[in-house]
Every structure is written in C-alpha cells, then in structure tokens.
C-alpha cells in the first residue's frame, strides 16, 4: 500500500469523526442550546449541505494548484470549522462552524479519490479508493464512539476540540506522505464541467443521493431511536455506534474488492439488500439484540455502495475526473441532508422514531431502480468488447506517469 493512501486515510478519519459524532451527542447539544432534537438535526443537514456546495466550489478553486497543496488547505479549513464549533456560544454559531468544516469534506474526498486511484494499477482503483475511505469507516469504530463517550462524560465541546486536533494530525500526514504531483491534468474549468455532459455521471450522483441517503435516514436519529424504542441506555449508544462502524468498515472493503471485479452486480446487491434491511429495521428496532444486528448490517450495506459509486463516476468522467469525483461526494451529503430533513419531518409529524427507516427504504429502493437504468444505458452505448467492470484500464494514464 502506498504511504500516500495512509495519509489520505488519516484525513478521512478526522473528517469521518466530525461528520458522524454529532449523532451520538445530539441530545446533549440540543439540551445545552435549548433546542428540540429535530432542530438540532440541522447540525447534520447543515453539514451535509455545506459538503454539497463546498465540494464543487473548492475543487474548482483548486484547479490551479497541486492536489497536495489543496488537500493541505482543506484540512486547515476543517480545523478552523471544528474549533469554532467547540467554542460556539449559541446554536447558530455552532451551525456556522459545522458548515465551515463541511466545506473541506467533499473536495478532500473528491480530490483524494483521484489521487488514490492514480497511485495504483487500473484494476485496483476501486480497492485504492476503498482504502482511503477506510479512514472514514475506522472513525466510526474508534473516533465516533470515543467522541460520543467523551461528549457524554466531559461535554460535547471537548469532543469537537478533539476533532480539531485530529484535523491537525491529518494535515501533517498529508504534508509528510502525499507526493507533490503538480497541477491536475485539466487546467480549465470548462474542461472539468464537460464531464457533466455524460448522463451517466448524473445518474451516478442520483444513485448516490438516494442510496446513501437511505442510510442517513435511519442513523441521523439513532440515539433517540435506540433509547426510546429499543430501550438502550444513553451510554450504550457508544457501543451501538461501534457496531455500525464495524459494519461500515467491512462493507467498504467488500464493496471495493468486488467493484473491481463486477461493479454493477455489486451495486445491485448492496442497494437491494439495503432497502430490505431498512424496512426490517422498523420492526427490529423494538428489540435490543435485533436492533443492534440490523444496525450493523445497514452500516455494511450502506458503505458497500461507496467504492462502486465513486469508481463509476471516475470511469464515466475519466477525461476530467476531479470535479465529477468531488461533486459525487457532495451527492453523498445531499442525500444525508435530504434524509436528515425528511426524518425530522416524519418524527415531528408524530410518526415515531422508527419512521425515518421507511423513508430510507424508499430512497434506497429508488436508487436501485436507477442503477438498473444506468446498466441498461451502458450496455446500449458502450463499444463492442469494452469491459464494464474495468473501463478505466484503457482510459487512465499509468499511475507512475502522473504521481
């Protein structure tokens, strides 16, 4: 494994911790600021929307500098945002801090995906992307549960101060380990935007919005769901998040490995099973053991979609992948924002804490239908003899020639 992938995983660990830890401390934050749980949910939605807008904006602004310098800058923005969140005197200021931190998220993973894919042979690109995202999944095994525990024991402000420190470590890791590669191949904004003429890029982003949005519909309000419905104590949420993180970790690795072999079949399987698991969660959430098992399965299936979706975008936008890759990361978080908002709506309507899982199943099921459409269009338009699962082999220049 190239050491640069380790640096990207370190940055991903910090970003993953701040993205997901808010769910574990949401009741504490809401209580301190005197707002309702659905209102506090805007700290999730606001972060996600910041990723949506920040991903393309900062990626475009970074087209004239090396990818390494841009990654370092993004980690600096991340540190500033989390520091502001930790020191926020009122809810509005914390929301601003969350948005600032989120601006770095999409561009970091978007640019990082391109760097990761270019560091390895064409047939290993999805696996390399999954290795970078391993930092995000490990954050859910270690960073998020630890942050939740610290937040409940010492206060959520200590948690976000710790996240800011993680960002500093990530910045130093990028500075030390990622090679200086020069500017990206595409020097004009027009060239980067040309990738969006491909309908497959838009289909991939729609699948991302709906598929991963289904996961967030269930887990945004996981703390009140597990305490009020399943009957767990607040302290047990930490270990439930560990299980969710383990599921994400395993699903990410499996998704990356099988996406290199059979991308669309992997996507069909993950999205179909995810939709079924979310439907099942509405029933299993009433039992402690079954709720824990289902939560782990949802984490695995949800993150099994990430490497194939990200690789699909890189393959379809191979001439100018940086902006398309970042935009797809934004799409993940647009789905997060949509799901968090819809989950808050159904809870506020009095439908109960399990009702967001119905929303999640609907979103993921729609993504499955779109994946069938994408595969159908690809079969109709690809040249005879082209291999679907590894199109990048003929389209990308060798890694050694670029990094």
Would you mind describing this structure in some detail?
There is one protein chain. By secondary structure, the chain is mainly alpha-helical. 81% of the residues lie in helices and 0% in strands. The chain contains 18 helices and no strands. It starts with a helix and ends in an 8-residue tail after the last helix. The C terminus is likely disordered.
Short description:
The protein is mostly helical and 403 residues long.
Secondary-structure map:
Elements: H1 3-24, H2 26-33, H3 37-40, H4 42-61, H5 67-87, H6 91-118, H7 125-154, H8 156-177, H9 189-194, H10 199-219, H11 222-230, H12 237-261, H13 263-284, H14 288-304, H15 306-316, H16 321-348, H17 355-381, H18 392-395
Helix pairs in contact: 1-6, 1-7, 1-8, 4-6, 4-16, 5-6, 5-8, 6-7, 6-16, 7-8, 7-12, 7-15, 10-13, 10-14, 10-15, 10-16, 10-17, 12-13, 12-14, 12-15, 13-14, 13-17, 15-16, 16-17
Shape: globular
CATH topology: Growth Hormone, Chain: A
User: How would you name the oligomeric state of the polypeptide chains in this document?
Assistant: single chain
Q: Which runs of at least 5 residues are low in confidence (pLDDT < 50)?
A: 384-403
CATH class category: Mainly Alpha
Number of helices: 18
| Beta-strand share of residues | under 5%
Total tally of structural domains: 1
Arithmetic mean of pLDDT: 81
Order of helices and strands: HHHHHHHHHHHHHHHHHH
What characterizes the major β-sheet? none
Number of strands: 0
Q: Alpha-carbon distance between the termini?
A: 14 Å
Classify the helix fraction into a percent range.
over 70%
Structural class: mainly alpha
- Second rung of CATH, namely the architecture: Up-down Bundle
Indicate the radius of gyration in whole angstroms. Answer: 20 Å
Q: Going by CATH, what is the homologous superfamily? A: MFS general substrate transporter like domains
């Amino acid at each position: 494994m190239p050491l640069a992938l380790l640096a990207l995983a370190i940055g991903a660990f910090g970003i993953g911790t701040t993205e997901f830890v808010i769910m574990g401390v949401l009741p504490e934050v809401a209580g301190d600021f005197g707002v309702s749980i659905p209102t506090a949910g805007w700290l999730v939605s606001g972060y996600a929307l910041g990723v949506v807008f920040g991903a393309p904006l900062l990626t475009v602004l970074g087209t004239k500098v090396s990818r390494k310098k841009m990654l370092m800058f993004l980690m600096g923005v991340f540190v500033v945002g989390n520091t502001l969140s930790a020191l926020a005197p009122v809810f509005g200021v914390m929301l601003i801090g969350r948005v600032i931190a989120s601006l770095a998220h999409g561009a970091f993973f978007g640019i990082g995906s391109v760097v990761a894919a270019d560091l390895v042979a064409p047939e290993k690109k999805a696996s390399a992307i999954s290795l970078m995202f391993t930092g995000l999944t490990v954050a859910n095994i270690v960073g998020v549960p630890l942050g939740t525990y610290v937040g409940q024991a010492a206060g959520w402000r200590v948690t976000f101060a710790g996240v800011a420190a993680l960002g500093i470590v990530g910045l130093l890791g990028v500075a030390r380990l990622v090679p200086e590669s020069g500017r990206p191949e595409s020097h004009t904004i027009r060239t980067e935007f040309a990738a969006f003429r491909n309908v497959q890029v838009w289909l991939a982003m729609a699948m991302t919005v709906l598929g991963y949005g289904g996961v967030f519909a269930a887990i945004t309000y996981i703390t009140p769901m597990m305490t009020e419905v399943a009957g767990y104590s607040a302290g047990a949420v930490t270990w439930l998040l560990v299980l969710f993180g383990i599921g994400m970790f395993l699903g990410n690795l499996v998704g990356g490995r099988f996406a290199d072999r059979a991308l669309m079949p992997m996507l069909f399987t993950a999205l179909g099973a995810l939709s079924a698991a979310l439907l099942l969660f509405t029933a299993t959430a009433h039992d402690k053991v079954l709720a824990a098992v289902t939560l782990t399965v949802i984490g695995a299936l949800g993150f099994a979609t990430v490497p194939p979706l990200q690789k699909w975008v890189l393959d379809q936008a191979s001439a100018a992948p940086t902006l398309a890759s970042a935009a797809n990361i934004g799409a993940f978080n647009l789905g997060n924002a949509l799901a968090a908002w819809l989950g808050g709506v159904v809870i506020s309507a009095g439908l109960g804490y399990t009702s967001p899982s119905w929303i999640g199943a609907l979103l993921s099921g729609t993504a499955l239908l779109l994946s069938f459409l994408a595969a159908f269009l690809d079969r109709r338009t690809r040249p005879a003899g082209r291999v679907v699962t590894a199109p990048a082999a003929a389209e990308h220049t060798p890694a050694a020639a670029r990094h």
